[in-house]
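Q: I'm writing up a methods section and want to include an example of the input and output format. Could you take the sequence below and give the corresponding predicted structure tokens, formatted cleanly so I can copy it straight into the document?
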Amino acid sequence: MPEFIKEGRLYWLRAPLFRLTNGSKRVFAYNEKELVELRKKYPNWEQGRNKGLGEMTSEDMELSMMNKENRRLEQLKINDIEQFDQLLRMLMGQEVDARREFLFENVDFSTINS
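A: Here is the clean output for your methods example:
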């Protein structure tokens, strides 16, 4: 699919990281900054965090990702397609040691909430 990427025709669907609820009402935040703004606007609403798509309810997914008015489609932009291909193959491949080394060198685990 490198040609799709080069031509700017590949997009990804962004999932929200946070959800604020008040009864049946829900709003979604896609990053920390948006969460802060929503907390100001809806201070007493209950907050939840999605660690992945598997934790989202079908209702949340429908409201946030499938609804044309709310969904976030972002164009996938890659500067060096060959370097990206090598990185993707390493991350998705069978060599655990290379993947572990890459993650520990490039991910700040102190920012990950448990």
